[in-house]
Amino acid sequence: MSRPLRLLTLGHSYVVGTNRALADAMARAGGGRWEVTVAAPDAFPGDLGPIRLAAVPGEAPRLEPVPVHGAGRIHTMRYGSRLRALLREGWDAVHCWEEPFIAAGAQVAAWTPRDARLVYATFQNLPKRYPPPFGWMERYAMRRAAGWIAFGATVEETLRTRPLYQARPHRVISPGVDTARFRPDAEARGRVREALGWSADGPLVIGYLGRFVPEKGITLLLRALAGARQPWRVLLVGGGPMEGELRAWAAGQGDRARVVTGVRHEEVPAHLNAMDLLCAPSQTTARWREQLGRMLLEAMACGVPVIGSDSGEVPHVLADAGVVVAEADGAAWTREIDRLLADSGERAAMAARGLARVEAEFALPVVARRHLAFFEELVRGA
Q1: 3-state SS of the chain: helix, strand, coil percent to 5?
Q2: Glycosyltransferase subfamily 4-like N-terminal domain: from which residue to which, for each copy (predicted)?
Q3: Exposed end of the chain (fewer CB within 10 Å): N or C?
Q4: Which architecture, in CATH terms, is 5-176+363-380?
C-alpha cells in the first residue's frame, strides 16, 4: 500500500479553533489517503484581546504552533523560523491561507521546498495593483505556486485573466460552513431572546451580524426599517467604529432594538437562531466589495432566511436561496423586508432552500473533498 499524501495547511486565522474546521474536515475526508497537519500562530491579537492557540477536543489534524512577528499589521506580519523548519518536513502539498501579496505569503513561497506543491487560497476580488514591495511579493509567490484556490466566483473573475494566475491551475471552492455548529436550534433561539429581554410572542426579529462599519450598509438598513410598515424588532450583532452611533439609534427605538457586542465565536450560532430574517446590505466602495459574506452561509445553515445586497460575492452565495436587492436601493430594501415579514410561507420556503443549498455546496465535508481533489490533481500531475 502506498503511503498517505502529506498536506500542511497554514494561516494566521487558524489560531481560532473554529477557523480550523475546514482543516479538520479535510483530515476526516482524507481517510487513509491524506495525512493533514495544521500550522497556526501560537498567539495572535484578536478583537476581544489576545488569542492563545489551544487544541480543540477531538480535532483530527496534527496541530503545530508557530510564532509570528508583527501580527498587528497583517500585510507585514512574518512567521518565525519554526515554520521554516516545519516546511522542510517532506510535504506533498502546502495549502497557504495567506494572501500571496503579503510578507507572510512571500515567506511561505521562499521556504517551501521545490518538490512540494504550493497552493494559495485568496479572497481578493478587486483588480488591484500593489505598490512595492507588495507587488513584488505577489509576483514572487505566484511564480512559485503550483495552483490557487479562489474563495468565490468574483475572486475568479478578478484574477483568472492576470498572467501570473492565468498560467496556473485553479478552482473556485468556498471555505464552507460547519453545519454541526450552525444548524436550526429552537432552544438557543429561546435562550438568546430571553437574555435580550424579548418575549417569544413579540414582532419578528430582523438581524445583522458582522462588523459595524459603513461599507457593511448598516445605515441603509436602519433607513429601510424606518420606512417599514410591518412591526419588527432588530438585533445588531458585531462590533466596530459605528457602535456608538448604533447604540444611540437603538436608545430611541424603545424595546424593539438591541445592539450586542463581544459575542464570541462559539456564541454566534445561538444569536443567528434568534433571528427570523438576516439582512446583509453590503455597500461596494472603491476599495472593497463583499468577498464572501460568511454570515450568509451561517444564517442559511441555521435555517434563517436571508436578504442580501448585490455587492460582490453575495448574489453568487445566495443564488435562488435568498433575496438579492440592489445595494443602493433603500426603497427596495423596505419593500422586501415588509414582504417577508408579512409572508410566513415564503420565509419557510427560503429557509428550506437555504438549508438545501448549504448541504449541497457549502457544508464542510463537501468543500473538504473538493480541496483534496485539487491538491491530489496537482501532486499526481507532478
Answers
A1: 45, 20, 35
A2: 21-181
A3: N
A4: 3-Layer(aba) Sandwich (3.40)
